[in-house]
Design brief:
The protein is α+β, with helices and mostly antiparallel strands and 427 residues long. The protein folds into four domains: 60 residues, no CATH class; 126 residues, Jelly Rolls (Sandwich); 118 residues, Glucose Permease (Domain IIA) (Distorted Sandwich), CATH 2.70.70; 78 residues, SH3 Domains (SH3 type barrels, Roll), CATH 2.30.30.40. Helix content is 15%, strand content 39%. The chain has eight helices and 28 strands. The strands form five sheets. Strands 10, 13, 14, 15, 16, 17, 18, 19, 20 and 21 form a ten-stranded antiparallel sheet that branches. Strands 2, 4, 7, 9, 22, 25, 26, 27 and 28 form a nine-stranded antiparallel sheet that branches. Strand 20 and strand 21 form a beta hairpin. 36% of the residues are buried.
Length: 427
C-alpha cells in the first residue's frame, strides 16, 4: 500500500491540469469541474452521473486513479459488496468501522414486502469524510442484476462531530434489496447503521393498533359470492377515523354495502383509500387532508348494521384493483436488538476459541452455516450486531461469528483508528 504522500504525487489530470492537489480536491467532482474550461465544465455537467456515489467514482476515473491499485480496489469493493452482501433481518442494528488502510464497502441484503417502507439511519464520526449510501433492487436480469432505487450521501464535519445519514424507500412489491455503505478513499471512522421496516400508511383509527384488526383481506363474503376487499378494524362507536396519508377526498356518497363512506385519493402513490361503515362524516368532498386528520367516526352503517362497530378499510391501486392494505398499516412493534457483544473488540484482531466454529451470513444462529472455521483462525472484527461480530478474514472474505466464539488478541488496530479519528464514537 502506497503512502498518502506517494498517492498524492501520483495524481495527474489529463484535461484540467491541476497540480499539487490534495486528496480531497482530487477526489471532489466539484473541484474538478471548477478547474476545467467552460466547455469542459458544460460537457461534464450535461453528462453528470446520477448519484453522489457515481459522481465520486467518475471523479476517480477522470483523475486517472482507476489505474492505481488503491483506486481499483475502491471501485472493485463497491461491486464485490453488492454481489456478496450480508443478510439483515429487520429490524437490524450494527456498529462498524472503516479504515484508511483498506478500500472497503459493506452491503446488507434486505427483504421488503409491498406496503413497507425501509427506514435507514447511519450515524458516523471521524475525520472529515464523505459516506455514500445506496439501495439496489435485486432483479432477474442477468445483464443488469441490480437496479438502483435510492441514494443518500453526507459529509462528516471536520470537527469530528457525529453526522447522520438517512435513506427512506417505499416498496411497491415483495422483493429483495441490497443496501450498500461505502466511505470515500483514505478515511477511518466508525458508523452505526439502523434498518427498520415500517408501514407506508398511518394507522386509520385513532388510538388503536394491530390487535383491533379482526377480519382480513380475501375472506369469504356473501355466502362465497365475493371476497373481502379490505380489513376490518373494530373500535367503539364514535372513535375518530383518520387519514392514513395526505390526499384529496374524492367522494363521500353513501352506498348500500359501505353506508357512509369516504374515498381518499393518495395521488402520490396512484391509489385510493376506502373508509366504510362510518357513523358520520367529518369532511366534505374535495377537501385536501393531511395524515392524522379526522375523516369521520366509526359506526355500523351499510351492511354492518348487525355487527359490532368497525371501520372497513380498503385500498385500490390504479390499474391493479383491490390490494391487501394490511402491510400498509400494520404497526411494527419490534425494535432493533441491543448491542450486547463487547464493542471494545471493534477493529481488533481475534482468534476462534474452538474448532469448527460456524460462520453465518447474518447475526443469527438460525439457517445453514456458510462454512466451519478452524480453531485459532485469526480474524479482524469489523462490526458488532447484537451478540455477534462481523469479521474479516485474511483473504478479504467475511461473515458473522458468535461473540463468545472469539478471543481478542494482540494490539487493537481500532486504537490507532480512534486516535486518527480524534477519539471515535462513544457507543
Amino acid at each position: 500500500m502506497r503512502s498518502l504522500t506517494q498517492f498524492r504525487r501520483s495524481v495527474q489530470f489529463t484535461k484540467c491540469s491541476v497540480s499539487h492537489a490534495t486528496v480531497s480536491t482530487v477526489l471532489a467532482a466539484s473541484v474538478v469541474l471548477a478547474a476545467c474550461s467552460p466547455s469542459d465544465t458544460f460537457r461534464a455537467l450535461r453528462s453528470a452521473p446520477a448519484t453522489p456515489y457515481d459522481r465520486y467514482a467518475q471523479a476517480l476515473r477522470d483523475a486517472g486513479l482507476d489505474s492505481t491499485a488503491l483506486g481499483r480496489e475502491w471501485l472493485a469493493a463497491s461491486d464485490s459488496a453488492l454481489r456478496t452482501p450480508f443478510a439483515a433481518s429487520l429490524p437490524a442494528r450494527e456498529l462498524g468501522i472503516y479504515t484508511r488502510s483498506e478500500a472497503r464497502a459493506v452491503a446488507y441484503r434486505i427483504v421488503l414486502r409491498d406496503g413497507q417502507r425501509l427506514r435507514t439511519t447511519v450515524r458516523a464520526d471521524g475525520p472529515a469524510a464523505r459516506l455514500y449510501l445506496d439501495l439496489f433492487e435485486v432483479t432477474t436480469d442477468t445483464a443488469r442484476p441490480f437496479a438502483h432505487r435510492a441514494t443518500a450521501a453526507t459529509m462528516i464535519p471536520t470537527d469530528s462531530a457525529a453526522a447522520m445519514l438517512t435513506l427512506d424507500y417505499e416498496a411497491t412489491r415483495n422483493t429483495e434489496f441490497v443496501l450498500r455503505l461505502q466511505p470515500e478513499l483514505l478515511r477511518s471512522g466508525r458508523f452505526e447503521v439502523t434498518m427498520q421496516a415500517e408501514p407506508i400508511l398511518a394507522f386509520p383509527v385513532e388510538g388503536l393498533g394491530n390487535g383491533a384488526i379482526q377480519s382480513f383481506f380475501g375472506a369469504s363474503r356473501g355466502g362465497g359470492n365475493r371476497s373481502h376487499h379490505g380489513i376490518d378494524i373494530f373500535a367503539p362507536r364514535g372513535t375518530p377515523v383518520l387519514a392514513a396519508t395526505d390526499g384529496v377526498v374524492r367522494s363521500i356518497s353513501p352506498n348500500s354495502l359501505g353506508g357512509n363512506v369516504v374515498w381518499l385519493s393518495d395521488e402520490r402513490r396512484r391509489q385510493t383509500l376506502y373508509y366504510a361503515h362510518l357513523d358520520r362524516h367529518a369532511v366534505s368532498e374535495g377537501a385536501r387532508v393531511r395524515v392524522g386528520d379526522t375523516l369521520g367516526f366509526v359506526g355500523t352503517t351499510g351492511n354492518a348494521r348487525t355487527t359490532a362497530p368497525h371501520l372497513h378499510f380498503g385500498m385500490y391501486r390504479h390499474g391493479q384493483g383491490p390490494v391487501d392494505p394490511l402491510p400498509y398499516v400494520r404497526l411494527v412493534l419490534a425494535k432493533p436488538p441491543a448491542l450486547t457483544a463487547d464493542t471494545i473488540g471493534l477493529g481488533r484482531e481475534a482468534e476462534t476459541r474452538v474448532a469448527n466454529t460456524p460462520l453465518r451470513e447474518s447475526p443469527s444462529a438460525s439457517g445453514p452455516a456458510l462454512r466451519r472455521v478452524p480453531r485459532a483462525t485469526v480474524v479482524q472484527i469489523m462490526g458488532v450486531s447484537a451478540n455477534w461480530y462481523r469479521v474479516q478474514f485474511a483473504d478479504g472474505t467475511g461473515g458473522y461469528l458468535a461473540a463468545g466464539a472469539l478471543r481478542l488478541t494482540g494490539d487493537s488496530s481500532a486504537t490507532v483508528m480512534r486516535t486518527q479519528a480524534g477519539g471515535g464514537a462513544n457507543h
